[in-house]
Design goal:
alpha/beta; Rossmann fold; 2 domains; six-stranded mixed beta sheet; five-stranded mixed beta sheet; 14 helices; globular; disordered C terminus
């Protein structure tokens, strides 16, 4: 981590509404700013558990040794009262009382996580918030995202309508002469799209009347050192009595970090796609491959002259492996020319073979690259997918122009694992899902933070937590501008 110089901010207090796993506090602490979390507000019980483990020191040992638990009936009552674990599918509170007479540690675990994170639960249950310098309110995107039904921001009718609960709490703070100095909104790009921009403008106008100057911009995570194509709108509101009018969003940069830089070295077999899954995803139809109407692994010589490699080429999604590294590695043979050396195809991951007096005649050394033709609703109808790229598995028959292939990055993470990566020669070009740890890295969390969260979370929960979060690195640069912290471009990966 680079050296930081705090210019004006000695300590800030924060209220994190819709707090998730705490991307906001992660960014603030990474800046080196002393920070006190006054309160969080979230009803996702597993997100609260992850927050407490990442930021508040929750461990299994602490759960087992803590001595100040109330009665189990009281714990159940408190958790139910704040709607922790509310089930939106069944539209009813989570049943905490079923643990009252059991030997399960569920009540203790969640109650202590809630206490440590100072979580107030559902925002609609709150009468007011204690003063804090900074409020963050990344309200649910469920009803404004292009991936949803786009039912809009409707008070009391949609989850995105919870924005009006933020309005209610700010009005209450104004009456109490306790308006925060700063506000931060983050949401999907569609919030400022054609359909919802009028509502966003109304919100900004209301903030203006309340006494805030608001600065907003759509930022892409891939422009701030994270190999994820994730566009989000950010709005920073500064109270007019302290605003000097100098705030500006950070400028984009490219620090050279690509998807391959955040991948794990050793990955459990369970994350690899089976042959059946691959056949379902990659349409094995050679006659349409070149047109992009299907997908198939196809070797390609960089000079455009290679023919199909044989089965031992290590380019198909098989169990073939390359054991040698940093050497001249033959990965296949063209089986085309009479002269053996002309048929050899080498890995681009190794060294070049000894160069001879080639004199043309296709005697030049040949190297192989993997390529897949992935169907996209574009003018070409397909995209070329190479080693180090990703594929969105959720859109195999997409008719929209939302890209499926990420060039050296992943497309926007969602709450489920929807991304596959093309692995390099050493992994035989097999297709696998991103691991939960890789998703955490792509959201800017450290491996240490992931390990803490993994203690209490299943893979499905970890995927959901990452997809619902905000990219820490983007917040890092925004907050650096907001709090006037001198920072340099972060170069490290795999924190």
């Amino acid at each position: 981590m680079e050296d930081l110089q705090i210019v004006k901010t000695e300590k800030i207090t924060v209220n994190e509404l819709f707090s998730g796993i705490g991307a906001q506090v992660s960014a603030i602490r990474r800046l080196g700013i002393p920070c006190e979390i006054k309160h969080t507000s979230d009803i996702d019980r597993n997100a609260v558990l992850a927050y407490a483990s990442i930021h508040c020191g929750l461990t299994e040992e602490l759960i087992n040794t803590y001595t100040e638990y109330p009665t189990r009936e009281e714990m159940a009552r408190q958790l139910t009262e704040i709607n922790l674990g509310y089930d939106f599918q069944k539209n009813k509170p989570y049943n905490w009382y079923r643990f009252v007479n059991s030997k399960s540690k569920e009540l203790e675990k969640y109650w202590l996580a809630n206490k440590l994170s100072r979580n107030l639960g559902g925002i609609s249950k709150l009468e007011h918030l204690d003063y804090a310098d900074f409020w963050t309110y990344s309200f649910p995107c469920t009803d404004i995202s292009v991936a949803g039904k786009q039912e809009g921001i409707k008070q009391g009718q949609t989850r995105s309508g919870l924005l009006y609960e933020v309005q209610r709490l700010l009005e209450k703070a104004n009456k109490m002469l306790a308006l925060p100095k700063y506000l931060m909104l983050e949401n999907v790009k569609n919030l400022v799209g054609k359909k919802f921009k009028p509502q966003f403008d109304e919100w900004v106008a209301w903030l203006d009347e309340l006494g805030y100057n608001t600065y907003w911009k759509v930022l892409n995570a891939k422009d701030y050192g994270v190999p994820q194509n994730r566009e989000r709108v950010f709005a920073i509101s500064i109270r007019k009595d302290i605003d000097d009018g100098k705030f500006e969003f950070p400028q984009p940069f490219d620090n050279g970090v690509r998807l391959k830089d955040v991948l794990e070295d050793n990955v459990d077999e369970k994350y690899y796609l089976t042959d059946t899954m691959i056949r379902g995803f990659i349409k094995h139809n050679e006659s349409h491959t070149a047109k992009g109407t299907g997908s198939i692994w196809k070797p390609r010589d960089v000079n455009g002259t290679a023919s199909t490699l044989r089965a031992n080429s290590a380019l198909a999604p098989t169990d073939n492996t390359i054991l040698e590294t940093n050497r001249c590695i033959q990965v296949g043979s063209l089986n085309y020319y009479n002269y053996d050396k002309m048929n050899r195809v080498y890995s681009k991951g190794g060294y070049s073979p000894t160069l001879e007096i080639m004199q043309g005649g296709n005697r030049q050394p040949k190297i192989a690259e993997p390529i897949a033709y992935v169907k996209e609703a574009t003018k070409k109808g397909y995209a070329e997918n190479y080693e180090g790229d990703s594929v969105n598995l959720e859109q195999p028959n997409s008719k929209t122009r939302r890209g499926r292939v990420g060039k050296g990055c992943v497309q926007t993470l969602t709450t489920s694992c929807n991304q596959a990566v093309i692995e390099p020669e050493a992994k035989s070009f097999r297709v696998r899902k991103l691991t939960p740890k890789e998703c955490y890295r792509l959201m800017g969390f450290t491996d240490e933070q992931f390990d803490r969260s993994q203690t209490f979370s299943s893979d499905s929960q970890l995927y959901k937590q990452a997809g619902n979060s905000i990219v820490v690195d983007v917040l890092y640069y925004i907050f650096g501008k907001l709090f006037e912290v001198d920072i340099e471009t972060r170069k490290e990966t795999k924190c």
